[in-house]
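ok, trying the design again with the full structure, not the truncated one.
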């Protein structure tokens, strides 16, 4: 029975993976170049901005080189250190990422957003309790600009530990703060599927699609959930919709594959 539940969950989880890799997952790697404006030397700011672009477009090696140049130009700029840590994290070099994030916090103890980054880097390095502690601290910090992502990261950490009740609580907190982010809707549905509550998972994804009707990944997840629930007509409708919305992207390709499995 357990294997069956995990198989169901993994099919929905696969929907979220491309979004995590793109930068939505570890909030961490998402930041605005303008935050560094006026904070350092022109040379450092130029390198920082270039690093942000490379990181967002999936070129971590080039991003790392630019952030290193930024830090060399101004080693006391916490934004540059955050960028450096984010590039290391994108390369899964957790040791150097943690060092860079900690240095950013030393330079600016009120830079709450870095605690999100540090928490996830610690969790991914195996220091799970320390990482969750950082995330809890970040969530409680009134200066945190993205508490909804901190809540999502906590939910995902607990999901990995199969503490589904705590994971569901944090995913709901994230959704309560920002209904338009697809990830907590999808991961909350995963938790519900993992605990045998498929109809609740469907209802959750329906709410997610209602909040973000143009998000193909949510539409795809809803189609997959309908398929799991045996609601094949509704599954076909949503899968075809996901394919129309993202014909050349990962959601569209996954929808096309799943459509082949639908009974005629």
């Amino acid at each position: 029975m357990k294997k069956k539940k995990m198989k169901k969950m993994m099919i929905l989880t696969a929907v979220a993976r491309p979004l995590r890799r793109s930068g939505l997952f570890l909030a961490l790697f998402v930041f605005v170049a303008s935050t560094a404006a006026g904070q350092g030397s022109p040379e450092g700011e130029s390198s920082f901005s270039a690093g942000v672009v490379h990181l967002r477009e999936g070129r971590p090696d080039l991003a790392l080189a630019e952030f290193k140049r930024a830090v060399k130009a101004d080693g006391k700029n916490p934004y540059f250190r955050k960028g450096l840590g984010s590039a290391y994290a994108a390369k899964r070099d957790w040791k150097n990422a943690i060092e860079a994030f900690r240095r950013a916090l030393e330079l600016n103890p009120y830079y709450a957003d870095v605690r999100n980054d540090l928490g996830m880097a610690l969790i991914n390095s195996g220091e799970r309790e320390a990482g969750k502690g950082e995330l809890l601290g970040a969530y409680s910090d009134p200066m945190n600009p993205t508490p909804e992502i901190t809540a999502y990261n906590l939910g995902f950490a607990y999901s990995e530990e199969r503490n589904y009740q705590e994971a569901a609580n944090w995913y709901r907190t994230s959704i309560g703060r920002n209904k338009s982010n697809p990830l907590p809707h999808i991961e909350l549905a995963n938790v519900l599927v993992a605990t045998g509550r498929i109809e609740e998972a469907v209802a959750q994804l329906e709410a997610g699609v209602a909040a973000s009707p143009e998000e193909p990944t949510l539409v795809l997840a809803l189609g997959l959930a309908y398929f799991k629930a045996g609601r094949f007509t509704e599954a076909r409708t949503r899968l075809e919709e996901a394919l129309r919305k993202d014909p050349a992207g990962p959601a569209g390709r996954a929808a096309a594959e799943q459509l082949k499995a639908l009974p005629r």
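Keeping the full-length input from now on. Residues 2-22 form the longest helix (21 residues).
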